[in-house]
Amino acid sequence: MGLRGVAALVALCAAFGACPAGAEPLWLANAHLIDGRNAAEVPLVDLRIDGRLIAAIVPASARPGAIDLHGAYLLPGFVDAHSHIQDPAAARRALAAGVTTTRVLGDEYLKALATRDLVRAGHVPGPQMLVSGGHIRPRLGEPFILSFPQFGQYLNAPLTGVDNVRAVARAVIARGVDVLKVGASERAGLADTDPRRAELSYEEMRAVVEEAGRAGLFVAAHAHGRSGANAAVRAGVRSIEHGTYLDDETLALMKRRGTFFVPTLAIMSPLGDPRGDSADSVALQLRTRAMMRPLREAVRKAHALGIPIAVGTDGDYGEGDSARVRPAHEIEELVALGFAPLEAISAATYQSARLLGIESRTGSIAVGLDADLLVVERDPRRDTTTLFEPMLVVRAGRVVLNRLE
Ligand SMILES: [Zn+2]
Predict the structure, then answer these.
(1) Are 89 and 62 found together in one domain?
(2) Number of domains forming the structure of the chain
């Protein structure tokens, strides 16, 4: 089969989302390699995919039968460390944006968990999903309670107390989640909350970390406020999500403990733009304008300290307001704060995979790892906008998007 034949077949099966995983080895030839680990060299290579894995990476040479990438840029698929994908349509959109793995923090009616299972079983195309199955916080909310009706008492009363929080964590773990999420501080995106105010206590979060640890899982903490974030880090969470008011003491503690920081700048930033004219919209807009300065400051300090920073969009890849953020937006935010482009790409690939504990399987480009790949047209070191439009996306050796000629 000639090049056009291969491309046509790939386009056809990609359209149906079910390309056979490598009956024959597939060569991607003549591409600049960005390995995801922030290697300074960007060599021109040919890469062989065998089944789901990267089987070989060799210097580029004329290679008949290969997909010729004509010097385009090959990088690891994005690992969106904080998303809210809820259904198969969103999973498909994430894949088309180059996201080959995501950690879904929060779940409405356990739809994300079901979507994960559909993707795993091969019924729907989507990124590899690690799902938290809910957000453990004092106000669990109706979607959570409808998923876990044994906790109906928390419809009208807050969840507090170490034993009660532990019981909820156990129930969530028993549903087969991959990670847990705790509320260390209140949310920012609602007019009647105060993101500086702490939610679960150190002892309560510690109980969740213990239960998660027993099941071999990590815990992510939603934390804007300084005391809540500090308690979460001391309790042993794997990552601080948002981190707006992180102070020097907590940053130093994160550095010592290796706690990851997922700042979600891109979803926060535009909330400070003038929008809507209801009292709630204005309150939210003014609040966000005030939050961006400390958040950017915290990221700059964390970067200088060498705290691992991972990319999370906090987006749902749906059709509403929080659908608009992509990993490339967050990469641009990090570059604006002084990251080199390759370093920001590493935050969205290798560092995110490390945060999830799966860096030995994905998140970078090396022989033996899953072929989770992305091809973009231009050099992202000079032009990050190219990251918004993948030409080719490969997930576990399958071509799932192909816009090549
Ligand atoms: Zn979120």
Answers:
(1) no
(2) 2
Are residues 259 and 297 both part of a single domain?
yes
* Ranges of the chain whose pLDDT falls below 70: 1-23, 188-191, 272, 321-323
Please indicate, yes or no, whether residues 240 and 306 belong to a single structural domain of this protein. yes
CB 6 within 8 A of CB 65: yes
CA of 336 to the centre of ligand 1 (A): 22
Question: What is the 384 CA–ligand 1 centroid distance (Å)?
Answer: 24
- Ligand 1 center–CA 113 separation, angstroms: 16
Q: In degrees, to the nearest 5, what angle opens at C-alpha 354 toward C-alphas 214 and 302?
A: 105
Task: Say whether both 158 and 115 belong to one domain.
Answer: yes
pLDDT of residue 179: 98
DSSP annotation of 362: S
Same domain, 82 and 66: no
pTM of the model: 0.92
Distance 84 CA to ligand 1 centre (A): 6
pLDDT, tens digit, 9 for 90 and up, residues 306-342: 999 999 999 999 987 666 899 999 999 999 999 999 9
Range of the domain at 135: 77-356
Taking the centre of ligand 1 as the mean of its atom positions, its distance from the CA of residue 241, in whole angstroms, is: 8
From 115, 131, 127, select the one nearest 398 (Cα to Cα): 127
- For residue 177, count other CB atoms closer than 10 A to its CB: 24
Q: Which helix (H) or strand (E) holds 281?
A: helix 279-305
pLDDT of res. 304: 98
Here the CATH number for the domain that contains residue 36 is: 2.30.40.10
What pLDDT is stored for residue 2 in this prediction?
A: 39
- List beta partners, residue 46: 58
Can you give the pLDDT at residue 197?
A: 78
pLDDT of 191 = 66
Ligand 1 midpoint to CA 86 (Å): 12
Q: Could you tell me if 383 and 341 lie in one domain?
A: no
By the 8 A CB rule, do 383 and 377 touch? no
Do residues 167 and 299 both lie within one domain? Answer: yes
